[in-house]
Amino acid sequence: MKARALVLEKVRELSLREIELPTQVGPDDVKIKIDTVGVCGSDVHYYTHGRIGHFVVEAPMVLGHEAAGVIVETGANVRNLKVGDRVCMEPGVPDLSSRASKLGLYNVDPAVVFWATPPVHGVLTPYVVHPAAFTYKLPDNVSFAEAAMVEPFAVGLQASAKAQIKPGDTAVVTGAGPIGVMTALAALASGCSSVIVSDLVDEKLAIAGRYPGVSIVNVKRERLADAVAAATDGWGVDVVFEASGSPRAYDGVQALIRPGGALVAIGMPVEPIKLDISSLSAKEIRIETVFRYANVFDRALAMIASGKVDLKPLISETFPFERSIEAFERAAEGRPNDVKLQIKM
Ligand SMILES: [Zn+2]
């Protein structure tokens, strides 16, 4: 069936128009009336560059993958959700019988189908069909706007899980973009006692620094290693989360981490980077990587509902669907005060 949607026609060309989209509700699916969609860095990157790595936009594609809405139809087998339930959706759907899925690593199943990753359409359209297994009911006190933040927050939570945070751990997050800030909040909610967030942009750091437990370092003016040494009596933090994707963030990173600590790579550098393995080995630093998330959406919702995490201050502005092209142009400007822009259907 044809539906109105925000369509990326090709690099730097968006349109709001009718497009053919799947509307068949299978026995294990639900149909969702979309309420709110967050604009993600990846959506913006497809708009400005037409590709991310080997994913290339070769045909018109609907954007958007950070979404919340209301169930309007359920398939015959669906038991966990009913019409009228408020929900948010995990945008990646694996093959549930794959080897990776059976291991609980469904995020790295090579067969994952992910919204707004070519050639799969995203959700900036009034209705979508999705498997009930990857659709999560919202607690009553979690708004649609907060629920549309669960997807990026889930990356931070996955990073915290990979870090194996222990009560009272200290951490550094390099990069104060949306994922960096959300990683700092996830680390604190997961048991960290304090987090140092570093970046080059004061406005971004100021937003992160408003949260209790977060201190900030502008690496243009101050050496991160000095700040870490001062905060930890020269011992180093338990975990460094790299959330900038900048190769420079890895220069001397081993000096920030305590012996036996962890380095968690979240940002995706465009090119291979240099790592001083000998120095990392001399401290037995554990290296972890993060690709999206698995089994954390329900935990993220519970953390938001309980008040342990407040993502509302990170929503910078909300645009109506009819102005979604404007929202993308604004996101592509990369204003330093903008954390998350959202679109309300
Ligand atoms: Zn996203």
Task: Please characterize this protein's 3D structure.
- With about 350 residues, this protein is α/β, with parallel strands linked by helices.
- About 25% of the residues lie in helices and about 30% in strands.
- The protein is built from ten helices and 20 strands.
- The strands form five sheets. Strands 3, 7, 8, 11, 12, 19 and 20 form a seven-stranded mixed sheet that branches.
- Helix 4 packs across helix 5 (about 180-190).
- The chain starts with a strand and ends with a strand.
- The protein binds zinc ion.
Which key phrases capture this entry?
10 helices, 6-stranded parallel beta sheet, alpha/beta, 345 residues, binds zinc ion
Helix/strand layout:
Blueprint: E1 2-10, E2 13-20, E3 29-38, H1 41-49, E4 51-52, E5 55-56, E6 61-62, E7 66-74, E8 86-89, E9 92-93, H2 99-102, E10 113-114, E11 127-131, E12 135-137, H3 144-147, H4 150-163, E13 170-174, H5 178-189, E14 194-199, H6 202-209, E15 214-218, H7 224-232, E16 237-242, E17 257-265, H8 277-282, E18 286-289, H9 297-306, E19 315-320, H10 324-333, E20 340-344
Helix pairs in contact: 4-5
Bound molecules: zinc ion.
